[in-house]
Each structure stands twice: as structure tokens, then as C-alpha cells.
Amino acid sequence: MKSDEQFSRIIIGINKNIIRILISIMTVMLILGTIQLIFLEFKKITNPPYLLIEVSTLVEVFNLILIIAVGYELIKALLLIISSNTIPTVPIIEISIIAISTKIITLDIKQTNSNVIISLALLIAALGLSYFLLKFCKASQNKA
């Protein structure tokens, strides 16, 4: 029994260190992505016509901003996993909803197959239902 607990602690420690490495890599990528976003915007507004941004550039910038925001949310989820002894399902579902919503916001409807749109709608519905059920079950357990 004692060796099983010790083995489990070692494996959990290794996994937490792997997650710490992933968080470090993602943080560096978020910093580089933010620098790229700033550089891209500076380059666009300093080229003629000055201080004017085209719609296609706005879409590109919004995509980058949303990707950076999703990366930040993913880092928060990984930090929650490290700091918790259990997997925090509700925050992970919230982050999943944010990520899928980001995909939907940046989706080019003209270039997208109807199957993709239906799949994303079903995925949002399933995540929303999961979120509702987890929150409802947790609220019911707290009342009991």
C-alpha cells in the first residue's frame, strides 16, 4: 500500500512538472505572439495610408487577439490543474466554450462547409449542457 501511494505521488509530481514546462512554453509563445501583434499593427499604421486599417487587417488582428486570449485561458486551466488534487471540470468546460466561441467568431462563413457549422453548433450545445448539468449538480449537492 505504501509503495503504491509513493508511486502515485512520483507519477503525479512528474506530470505536474510536465504541465509546468508546458505552461512556460505557452507563456513564451503568448509573449512572442503579443510582440508580433504589436509589430504588425505598428507596421500597418505607419505605411501609407497612415493610421488607416483595412477590414482584412482588422480580421487578422482580431484573430491574433482571440488566439492570445484563448492561450491565456488555457494557461489558467493548466494552473488550476496543477493547484488542484482533482480535475476542475467546470473551469475547463468554461475555457472550452470560450475557445469554441472564438473559433465561431473568427469563422469565415463563405469559406466554411455546412457540416463544420453544424458540428460547432452541436459542440457548443453539448458544452453548454455539460456546464449547466455540472453547475446544477454542484448546486444540488451544496443544498443537501
Automatic annotation (TrEMBL):
One of its GO terms (cellular component) is plasma membrane. It is a multi-pass membrane protein. The keyword Transmembrane applies. Pfam families: PsiE. Signal peptide: none annotated. Its main location: membrane. The chain crosses the membrane at residues 21-39, 51-70, 77-104, 116-134. It is found in: Cell membrane. Keywords: Cell membrane, Membrane, Transmembrane, Transmembrane helix. Coiled coil: none annotated. This is Phosphate-starvation-inducible E-like protein.
